Amino acid sequence: MKEDCSLCERKFSHYSLRRCYRCKKMYCRDCITYTWDGNLICLNCARRLVSPKIRGSKYSPLSRYLARKARYADHVTLPFAKIEEIIDDSLPFSATHHRHWWSTQSSPQAQAWLDVKWKVHTVNLEHERVTFRREGLVKKKTRRKRRKATSAFMDKTFRPTKPRRLREPSKTKIARARARLANVERRRSSMRQYRGKFKPKSAYEKRLYKPDAKPSKTED
């Protein structure tokens, strides 16, 4: 008779599998190790033992998960395997075999969903799933009714816009513009002007040639 390993899901004979002392599940030899005191432990439980502990209870991740679900749902059905994945730990033996584990309100697991205003609605131990229901239904967004197009509404909506009135420039702006024009005219009058086709020589020409004659062009 062959069985599946709970971690790698490969098939082995029943005698080649080993049971983890912490989660009580069957694993192959590749998915199991030994603790410092010689007990058999699976790799998942070993990782949880050496990983740093998070503040809060063991079921705090479930509380945060339900709080996010409350934004858009009023009930949610979770398999036990999904809850173990959320809390990153295995559920106790009484959670999968006894209903009172889910109905006890003073327990730490009940505080995880009661603090975020959720309740356990139904528990199915045969299919290993639980349904949570939120206190108070989520309000659905209603569509805003369209306003009837009455004559007063049409006059108010399609009222012609007033023509935009051009504002005259202030006296300060006019004074600044006149001052800039006066500065431009003053700068133009101070510049040296040349008459006719006379063009002054550049500094480069003055440095290479004599001022009275230029060298003639030579043909190659």
Provide keyphrases for this structure.
single chain; 220 residues; alpha+beta; Herpes Virus-1; 3-stranded antiparallel beta sheet; 9 strands
Describe this entry's structure for a reader.
- This protein is an alpha+beta fold and 220 residues long.
- Among the domains are: 2-50, Zinc/RING finger domain, C3HC4 (zinc finger) (Herpes Virus-1); 60-134, no CATH class.
- The protein is 34% helix and 15% strand.
- The protein contains 9 helices and 9 strands.
- Strand 8 and strand 9 form a beta hairpin.
- The longest helix is centred in the last third of the chain and has 20 residues, at 171-190.
- The protein starts with a strand and ends in a 12-residue tail after the last helix.
- The mean pLDDT is 79.
The gist of it:
The protein has 220 residues and is an alpha+beta fold. The chain has helices at 43-50, 60-69, 80-87, 93-97, 100-103, 108-114, 151-157, 171-190, 203-208; strands at 2-4, 11-13, 18-19, 26-27, 32-34, 40-42, 75-79, 118-124, 129-134.
H/E order of the elements? Answer: EEEEEEHHEHHHHEEHHH
Most strands sheet: 3 strands, antiparallel
Structural class assignment: alpha+beta
Average pLDDT score: 79
Q: In whole angstroms, how far apart are the ends?
A: 106 Å
Topology:
Layout: E1 2-4, E2 11-13, E3 18-19, E4 26-27, E5 32-34, E6 40-42, H1 43-50, H2 60-69, E7 75-79, H3 80-87, H4 93-97, H5 100-103, H6 108-114, E8 118-124, E9 129-134, H7 151-157, H8 171-190, H9 203-208
